[in-house]
Design goal:
16 strands; mainly beta; eight-stranded antiparallel sheet; 1 helix; three-stranded mixed sheet
Length: 244
């Protein structure tokens, strides 16, 4: 792995957003459009965290090799942040999506609370750089007990976001890499180039799948692009294939 100064992160600001389950990640992470909605003010100190359960390792051996393989149990991860906006929407995220609105406008605490199900997006900004976590389906509910401990700081509602499998996806959430703009196109050459200018090369052949080739006809002998892992690929007229 090469040293990449542009891939370091110091969070200057950020936003947390929700949208109906299955909503795609917005094309512009800095100005997400409807149906994405900001959850509101969040803690300046407890910015973001990821906790996990499971993932225990079990060593499996044979008579000839006592540590032949390692098997890991399923891991469940929870993203955490603290909401500081005590409006109706915020209270329902903490106390449950089925929290009733009472005749006087107050929010009732349900006896059998249900988490809010939505797509989730967390975007962090570092100067000209930005970084995001995206889950097409997640459950949002309280992560810890609420405590109002003093009169000098904003009170908070600790929330937990559990990314869930969506559709046929073999992943639960995605993270945008730092270090540059991801490539959306590739032009034939020896080697070829990625677009837009300055775009980061896809890490491997699988990551190249969404990149549009120019020209769209089969590339000629020798034309290729170099991927992030050092391998080469070319366009055969219908798909990206490995080459040497």
């Amino acid at each position: 792995m090469a040293i990449n100064d542009a891939a370091t992160l110091v969070v200057g600001s950020g936003n947390y957003l929700t949208s109906p389950v299955g909503t795609s990640m917005p094309a512009d992470l800095l100005t997400p459009l409807s149906p994405w909605q900001n959850v509101g003010h969040t803690s300046l100190e407890d910015v973001f965290g990821i906790t996990s359960e499971g993932g225990e390792a079990t060593t499996i051996g044979s008579l000839q090799n006592k540590s032949l393989r390692t098997k890991y149990s399923a891991r469940t991860e929870t993203m955490t942040f603290t909401l500081q906006q005590f409006d109706t929407a915020g209270l329902k995220l903490y106390f449950g999506a089925n929290a009733p609105i009472l005749p006087d406008g107050s929010v009732g605490v349900p006896t059998n609370p249900e988490p809010t199900q939505s797509a989730f997006l967390a975007v962090f900004v570092d100067g000209d750089n930005h970084f995001a976590f995206y889950a097409p389906r997640a459950e949002i509910y309280r992560a810890d007990d609420m405590a109002i401990s003093d009169t000098e700081s904003l009170a908070g509602l600790p929330l937990g976001v559990k990314p869930m499998a969506f559709g046929s996806n073999d992943w639960t959430y995605a993270i945008t890499p730092l270090g540059g703009t991801l490539a959306t196109g590739a032009s034939a050459g020896t080697p070829g180039t990625f677009t837009p200018d300055g775009a980061v090369a896809p890490e491997n052949l699988a990551a190249l799948a969404a990149v549009i080739a120019t020209p769209t006809s089969a590339w000629t002998t020798g034309q290729h692009v170099v991927l992030g892992d050092g391998s080469k690929a070319k366009w055969d007229g219908s798909a990206w294939v490995a080459t040497t």
